[in-house]
Amino acid sequence: MSLGDKLLDIPEFYVYLVLLVLLVVPLIKPFGLPIALTETSRKYFNTVESLEPGTYVWVTHDAMSMTELEIGLSSHAVLKHLFQKEGIKIVIGCIVGEGPMFFEQTLKDVGAYEKYLEGYGTKYVYLPFVAGDEAAAAALATNIEKATGGVDYYGTKFEDLPLMQEVNNAEDFEIIFCVDEPGWNSVIWMNQWAVPYNIPMYCNPLAGVSASLWPYIEAGQIQSMLVGSKGAAEYELLMKAPGRAVAGMDAQSLGHIFLLLLVLMANIVYGSKKVSGEK
Amino acid sequence: MSQLVRRQIPIAIMVILGIVLFVDFFFKVPETYVAITDEIKSFNIVVAGFALGLGVFNILEIHGKHISKRTPEQWYYSVWLIIVMAAFIITGLGFGIQAESFKFLYQNFFMPLDMTIYSLIGWLVIYAIYIAFRARTVETLFMIVIFFFALMGNAPVGAAIWTGFPDIRVWMETVPNSAATRGYYLAQSIGAIAMGLRTLVGKTRAGLE
Known about the structure:
heterodimer; A: alpha/beta; 6-stranded parallel sheet; 14 helices; 6 strands; 55% helix; 11% strand; elongated; B: mainly alpha; 7 helices; 0% strand
């Protein structure tokens, strides 16, 4: 086997080994490469920053373990920001079965768990999982009490939760933040909440599906988004609180460069073999 | 009688519910009408809950057969699946999903496994790109060029090398990508409208078969 052939068929083990080193080293010792801020992330941040006290916010916390490592970074940043704002009233719902498993952990991570113990029921409420995907979102839009059975995640009745006396359908909310971990829920909430009730919506999609949301942003049906871990890193920088997302960006850069070099090298070897007539 | 029960009545229910909800979504309707559609939507949630339960029986049936037939290289996985499912169901229903025992099971078994499997996809994709992205045709060369700009526009290192990379990426997303995606969505929506109309006039029975 010639060197060219070997370069065209490097065993997986070596590729993964180099990748592992490239990902781990910057996590231990970050280089601090500058992170360019995108317009979408700025718009998202500025919106949260400008929320007035008394604003009713609907957060769809559609979390799942599969993609929590990516979207959890941005959802934590946004929730932290929301909880830092005084006087905002937040209702958190979910139509993904796994969502509730991440709720308390998310609050602990964003440092809101103690606040939760203090202000639960008046500052914010966490609703139970509602089955039925888009039909569930539609049901929540028209009557939250009926869709949830009139209880929150902990089984507390709405009549004992002052915040739930003030809101009961999509029309009562002024803004939507959608934590979209499954990859298609932004469109569900846009269809059933944002567009029919004319509510501005901001979402946190996976980097891999963000491209499919651009037409909706261009059309003004979704106002902006935080794309994957890069969006989370930008948000952390805008909050002046660099965290896990920022720390992971150098690793992402090295991983990207390594992949580009692999593809480039393979194509140079492949091209030269083709030109020289080798099979 | 059998045809009536198995086809006509379900189709009639489907058509009536479809029309009722269609009117509710697209028109301003009186409060009494909204109350009726609220009930229908709530009923949908109950049905979805039952569907989840039905899934359990479906899994039991499929994997029960594997176990009883001792399907080679499968039956012991089926046994394990049923044991794990039973553990989750018993703990969840018995103590509730907020109980520490259920959280322990979820956070120490399901969550790390699920996260690992999804993360492994990223590694596999990297190797797959290295193997597949060879400029064998003009189309693949075109794809590699797009891949290059998308990657450099996304990672911070791209902007560190040349500030134009993020701008190119934004242009790719907002112009060619949006145009193609919009076309796809429009085609998909027209198909959904056609499907919806067929359902409303009782021509589609896919859900009943």
